[in-house]
């Protein structure tokens, strides 16, 4: 079949030499993601991913996070190399509606390339009609997307961080844009996950001119990926948040509707240079184990961990904001890096890592914040504490400061902190990432670690040791209470603390009576 007869390329008239896509281009999308790029960045998509309007695309078996992105596609006319922004638009022949589908289940191991995430067959629908670039104002194009008839994206090129001409000029600095090449110019806020049976429509309007609606139906595939050939799909809370568009949307959706969602991210090795944080496996904290740990003082747990060679498991320098606070829970981590103005401008606003962590925390989890012991700024305030309390988090632990300390204390959630401070986050910190190993109060905390806190401080228990340590600590507490009663009755410490054989025999006899 020649290219002209191939229906995938019908709207273009021929197979394009390359498809280049922009990562983040709209302010609304950047604000939603909590990061605004200083310059455009790109990735390639294969021409085999093109599809016309009116076709089905498959969500592969074992996946759950197929997301749409309504976009404007530019088609290059005259080749462009080293063109200026002023001249760039004259090298665009036409534009049309596009849908940049992506499978977020594959995103982590793509490590930014999007080769598998966005390269699937049919993952770049274009059409149905081309608009002549000479007839439109590139700064006044309207982009809309509907899912099952509901409008979910509505923005214009006035909301671009990088004007269309700048994108063309920038790409021409790096390689020749050839006749027929396609540029996908990014998506605004509103992109989200679609499931089999749903219909997505995208339309671009330039005043009275319109591309018409580009229509794509999602179908369920029946062929899973082969683990003997390559890595399997893997999802975590970070990917769900990014795919659905927000932590709230991801939470409302649950864990997806795939009948076989593949392995969790923890089942795959985490590449050392992976740009996407993966949530570590978090063994469940059973009600029985939680109950046992709730009856054991931190000091007793510390003693049992020390007997097992674990000395560096206390989060030092933190104290309960409210005296008498106590908690048991599993770690949900948040990392701050030292403040830098340009990085805070990119990562500090919108749905940043700090807000994502508080939106994603689950019942019984402890938000553990790495603030490097820097107390010259708050790492949370009353609004975030209220959010964590509403999510039924077990506690918040930070080796940094707490702002609005009295209001935070009044919320009712246990908060352990290095102290109060009135300054806002941007004075000392940049919210950076979630669900990674962090250093808090001089010890490492991994997602899923078990934490216990009381007036003596906070201790970190490796999940694999938790049952053993809890049972041993309860037994030791029983023994210590018995010794305390003997001392209180006037017995001398010698031979009793610690117990010699005679006292041990007496203790065992009374305990077993």
What is the compact description of this entry?
With 513 residues, the protein is of the alpha/beta class. Helix content is 24%, strand content 26%. Strands 18, 19, 20, 21, 22, 24, 26, 29 and 30 form a nine-stranded mixed beta sheet that branches.
Describe the model:
The protein is elongated. The protein has 14 helices and 30 strands. Strands 18, 19, 20, 21, 22, 24, 26, 29 and 30 form a nine-stranded mixed sheet that branches. Strands 2-1-12-6-7-9-3 form a seven-stranded mixed sheet, with no helix packed on it. Strands 4, 10, 11, 13, 14 and 15 form a six-stranded mixed sheet that branches. By secondary structure, the protein is of the alpha/beta class. The chain is 24% helix and 26% strand. The protein folds into three domains: 7-267, Fumarylacetoacetate hydrolase, domain 2 (Alpha-Beta Complex), CATH 3.90.850.10; 287-465, Ribonuclease E inhibitor RraA/RraA-like (Glucose Oxidase, domain 1); 467-512. Residues 255-283 have low confidence and may be disordered. A hairpin with a 2-residue loop joins β27 (438-440) and β28. The N and C termini lie far apart (89 Å). It comes from Microbacterium testaceum (Aureobacterium testaceum). Residues 243-264 have a biased composition (Low complexity).
């Amino acid at each position: 079949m020649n290219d002209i007869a191939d229906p995938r390329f019908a709207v273009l008239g021929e197979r394009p030499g390359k498809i280049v896509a922009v990562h983040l281009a709209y302010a609304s999308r950047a604000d939603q993601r909590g990061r605004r790029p200083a310059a455009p960045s790109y990735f390639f998509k294969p021409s085999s991913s093109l599809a016309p309007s009116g076709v089905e695309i498959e969500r592969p078996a074992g996946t759950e996070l197929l997301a749409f992105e309504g976009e404007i596609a530019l088609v290059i006319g005259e080749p462009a190399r080293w063109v200026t922004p002023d001249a760039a638009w004259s090298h665009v022949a036409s534009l049309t509606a596009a849908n940049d589908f992506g499978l977020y289940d594959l995103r982590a191991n793509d490590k930014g390339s999007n080769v598998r995430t966005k390269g699937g067959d049919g993952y770049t629908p274009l059409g149905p009609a081309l608009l002549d670039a000479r007839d439109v104002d590139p700064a006044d194009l309207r982009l809309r997307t509907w899912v099952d008839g509901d409008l979910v994206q509505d923005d214009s090129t006035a909301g671009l961080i990088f004007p269309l001409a700048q994108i063309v000029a920038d790409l021409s600095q790096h390689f020749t844009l050839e006749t027929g090449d396609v540029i996908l110019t990014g998506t605004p806020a509103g992109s989200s996950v679609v499931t089999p049976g749903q219909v997505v429509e995208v339309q671009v309007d330039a005043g009275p001119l319109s591309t018409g609606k580009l229509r794509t139906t999602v179908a369920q595939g029946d062929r899973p990926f082969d683990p003997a050939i390559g890595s399997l799909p893997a999802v975590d809370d970070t990917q769900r948040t990014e795919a659905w568009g927000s932590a709230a949307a991801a939470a409302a959706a649950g864990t997806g509707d795939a009948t076989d969602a593949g392995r969790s991210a923890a089942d795959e090795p985490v590449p050392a240079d992976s740009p996407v944080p993966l949530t570590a496996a978090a063994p469940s904290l059973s009600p029985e184990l939680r109950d046992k740990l709730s009856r054991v003082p931190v000091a007793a747990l510390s003693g049992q961990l020390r007997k097992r060679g674990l000395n560096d498991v206390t989060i030092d320098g933190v104290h309960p904001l409210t005296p008498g606070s106590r908690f048991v829970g599993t770690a949900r981590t948040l990392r701050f890096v030292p403040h830098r103005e340009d990085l805070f401008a990119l990562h500090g606003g919108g749905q940043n890592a700090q807000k994502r962590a508080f939106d994603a925390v689950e019942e019984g989890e402890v938000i553990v914040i790495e603030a490097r012991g820097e107390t010259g700024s708050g790492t949370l305030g009353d609004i975030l504490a209220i959010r964590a309390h509403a999510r039924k988090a077990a506690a918040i632990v930070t080796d940094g400061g707490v702002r609005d300390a009295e209001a935070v204390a009044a919320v009712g959630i246990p908060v352990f902190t290095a102290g109060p401070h009135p300054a806002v986050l941007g004075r000392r910190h940049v919210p950076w990432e979630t669900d990674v190993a962090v250093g808090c109060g001089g010890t490492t905390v991994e997602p899923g670690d078990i934490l216990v806190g009381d007036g003596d401080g906070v201790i970190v228990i490796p999940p694999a040791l938790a049952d053993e340590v809890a049972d041993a600590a309860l037994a030791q507490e029983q023994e210590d209470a018995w010794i305390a009663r003997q001392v209180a009755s006037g017995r001398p410490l010698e031979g009793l603390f610690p117990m010699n054989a005679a006292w041990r025999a007496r203790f065992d006899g009374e305990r077993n009576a």
